[in-house]
Write a structure and sequence with these properties.
This protein is mainly beta. 10% of the residues lie in helices and 32% in strands. A twelve-stranded parallel beta sheet has the order 3-4-7-10-14-17-22-25-28-31-34-37. A hairpin with a 7-residue loop joins strand 41 and strand 42.
Length: 621
Amino acid sequence: MQRWVDNVSVRNGSNERRVMSNEIQRAIVWVALLITQCSLLSAAAQAADHFVAPNGTPQGDGSILKPWDLQTAFNQPVSVKPGDTIWVRGGTYHGSYACKLAGGSGSGQQIIVRNYQGERATIDSGTNETYTAIIDVMGHDTWVWGLELMSSNPIRQFSCTPSATVNCSWQNGIQRLPGSITEPQSNNTKFINLVVHDTQQGFDCFKGSNVEIYGALMYYNGWSSQGGTNNRGHGHAIYMQNPQTPPSYKLVAETIAFDGFAIGQRVYGSGNAFAWNVEFRGNVSFDQGILYGGYTGLWQNYLFTVGSGAHNMVFSENHSYFSQDSINGMVQLGYYWTPRDYNLIAQNNYFIGGNNPVEILKWDQISFTNNTTYSRTGFPINVCILQDQLLSNWALDNNQYYGPNKFQFSHACQPNNPTSMGSMPFSNYQQQSTLDAHSMATQGPPTGTWTFVRPNKYELGRANIIIYNWDRLPNVSVDISKSGLSIGQSFEIRDVQNFYGPPVLAETYTGSPITLPTNLTTIAPVVITPLNPAPSPYAPPHHTPSEFQVFILLPAGTGTAASPCDIDGDGSTNVLDVQQEVNMALGISACTADINKDSFCNIIDVQRVVNAALGGSCVSP
């Protein structure tokens, strides 16, 4: 028979303890349940917090017990004020949505839309095209945080016959939306720690001022076409532009993107488009373009240029990796088809793999310093400057180049004609260009292990982990002391290529380095019904080799794992879970949720479920 014990004494051999009567036990548990229900109602009624659930309705009041549906919340009911938070409960929301929330312009006046307690809140657009994106941001001063955006529509390929009315370069018959779009009024919008996959395109960020994309995980985005002259993959992880006026700054930071149909992250546009004041910092992009044609279809991991010329661009601390070399696998800072770009700072980046890991093309002014590049078979760097551009405005120095001793430097920036650039050993390149005077060139690949732990500024204890494992070790030691985790805090490590699969590591932090495996092979499934060889080629992705791995560190309670306090397994901890735990503690039902692992269901377990239901953590050994 189960008994609750507290700090009293009952003789039992050499043990001494005191046992509450069953009547007192039952009274305390029922009081706990009553307090929980009242607390939940009180917390939900506060103006600062509102709730959305898959089974929410327009008739709800936005409380945790009577949540709204998602579109009702996005319409900003009168009770939602600047500074409020809309909590999105776990589960799947179907369709596309218009986010019309309008926060305030002062500090702390933004409206936050965030997944609740780390629950997996998924918006699946399917074939729905009610709006122009899964989340079409029509408001301003809003932060969208922690949601999963995707499409379960398996149709990703099409073929067509071009005509006066049919443009085969755009999607025809592919009912698929981008993850999110910013509109002209979408000022001061932030997208934080979203997971965006299997969409038409991750983010369309042409409009709006002062937009930030931070911590996003983006994969398997895009589609492909066959017909006319534009047979290729389409859709990118991020497609961005930024006008000169009104003054605007756009930031893409600490994101991870891989395995798309086309380019990874690009700032790009025609002569009528603009790119001013854009910064990319601390991002990871790898094996972009692989879904269209496999490794032979690899494309740019990053592209920085615009037809009118890019101004005031910053590209720092980013990582680019290709598992194999490909003629189009590269990073392009500048572009052959752009007349010229204006000024760029690129520093402390890692450009690994691809035929040309990085190409520097046609800038009026550029600082390219403290970068590392490696090409297996191609050119460690490709540099082209126009005849009327001044080398005195080019600062390339203190870089480390690995690979073949062949470099490209030219004033003949001819599209689709890389041989016009010539080939020369590093010493000749330095002499002819007068660049890279203090840089180093090492023939062959790097050696050893490089690890990077990049803390997340919005979630303490969360971090991206990047590993270059040049010696192909089966396991690599990583120091995570800079992540923000506390000693004794539980955490898990997730492979970004199988993010919603089991964690590769789940431990309690001791302050010591952790050991991560590198011979991983399992990847997330692609949402697609392949149609090969027609209408367009599709190649399934592969896990990166042990040479390169990327992980996300998640503190306990913020990951994708089910919480032990979610008794009914519905993706959230609420009063229904408290009721079930109370029944177990009273012996009404079997003890199947011993939260603290002491072989009993008792008041301690009830308290922990109550704490989780009220927004705290579900603490378990």
